[in-house]
């Protein structure tokens, strides 16, 4: 049974990572809006989250223009070597999840670029959502942490980039 659950998690992580960047962003938004009552409350109160650090990074993003905010979110998913991606990459997985939760709250309050009206998920993204919804709460959290863990750039293992100076 444990192997079956682990395989399901791996398959769901792979399916999510195979989505386009914008579909991955949309899945996060739909999770916040549709499944938020069962998923997101754990992120802010998690004992291993660093709220001040997540809020500090969120505030950096909040100060940008909406277009720049969207680009930063895309850069995180695409692992672009930029300062915010490196700062994000240094966070714990739970703090990364909290950061995405703060972004979704910011989108809801329109301080972060909101989702386009009537945006729809592609079928593969909808399948990811449905599979996530079918999991137990703790399994949902494990999958969500897996989704956010590889985003950004780990500054401790990333080679120096002469172009950016990072």
Order of helices and strands: HHHHHHHHHH
Which range does the strand content fall in?
under 5%
Overall pLDDT metric: 86
* Number of DSSP-assigned strands: 0
Discrete helix count: 10
Domain tally = 1
Instruction: Give the CATH superfamily.
Output: Orange carotenoid-binding protein, N-terminal domain
| Low-pLDDT segments, ≥5 res | none
CA-based shape: globular
Q: Could you name the CATH class?
A: Mainly Alpha
What is Rg? 15 Å
Largest sheet: none
Kindly report the CATH topology. Answer: orange carotenoid protein, domain 2
What's the end-to-end separation, in Å?
44 Å
| Helical content class | 55-70%
Instruction: Write the CATH architecture name.
Output: Orthogonal Bundle
**Helix-and-strand structural type:** mainly alpha
Describe this structure in words.
It is a single chain. This protein has 166 residues and is an all-alpha fold. It has one domain (22-149): Orthogonal Bundle (orange carotenoid protein, domain 2), CATH 1.10.2090. The protein is built from ten helices and no strands. The mean pLDDT is 86.
Draw up the topology in text.
Elements: H1 2-17, H2 21-34, H3 36-39, H4 42-45, H5 51-62, H6 66-78, H7 83-89, H8 93-108, H9 123-134, H10 137-149
Helix pairs in contact: 1-10, 2-6, 2-9, 5-8, 8-10
Concise overview:
The chain is mainly α.
Attribute tags:
166 residues; mainly alpha; orange carotenoid protein, domain 2
